[in-house]
Amino acid sequence: MNRRAMDPKRPIRNRLRGALAATALLLLSACGGAASEPPPLEGAAIGGDFTLVDKTGKTVRAADFKGRYRAMYFGYTFCPDVCPNDVGRLMLGVRRFERTNPKLAGMVVPLFISIDPERDTPKVVGEFAAHFGDNLIGLTGTPQQIAQIAKSYAVYYKKGQMLSPGTYLMDHSSAAYLMGPDGKPIALLPIDIDDKGKSVAAELAKWVR
């Protein structure tokens, strides 16, 4: 007689083993850090090469960040409120991510890219970026270079009415892109949520591997 075949508890044990195996696979997947869904911006026509300059006037290209994630924000240094608030929340999130994920901290490069090349010289952009952290890289360029990168990254901007000589506001879209190590778009970082950078850090933790 086959005792294994006649054991009434065996089917239950088998089901338990199956459930435990499935749970183990899920846990292994979570430990591996694999996202459970495709990136929100997967396949979007956002990104591409660019040529800009940093605070020292050194030429910076998209290829310089190959293999690293870019958190990119487009704004201008003379912005009275929106840009400083957005960049502040972005950098709070980056720093929170660095504290909770120290091994991955060097994989993320935050970039501030000016859409006001007329006033945002390399020196001005560098000083603005320094207010938010040593690792925030400020970039600017010629009007043609800014127009090119804005088009590539689906960024809207327009010079506003002159308020006084040399004084004007810029109308522009407000978004922070997370770009992958291969330069492809991954997601928008939630810089509109005022929670001390928790939401930004959570989004970074979700995709940065």
- In CATH, the topology of the largest domain is named Glutaredoxin
Q: Which superfamily, in CATH terms, is the homologous superfamily of the largest domain?
A: Glutaredoxin
Name the average pLDDT. Answer: 87
Query: How many domain regions?
Result: 2
Distance between the termini: 55 Å
Low-confidence stretches: 1-34
Order of helices and strands: HHEEEHEHEHEEEEH
Strand count, sense and barrel status of the largest sheet are: 5 strands, mixed
CATH architecture type of the largest domain: 3-Layer(aba) Sandwich
Using the alpha-carbon principal axes, give the shape. globular
Strand order of the largest sheet: 5-4-3-8-9
Helix content: 25-40%
Tell me the number of strands: 9
Strand content: 15-25%
Radius of gyration: 23 Å
Number of DSSP helices? 6
Structural class: alpha/beta
CATH class of the largest domain: Alpha Beta
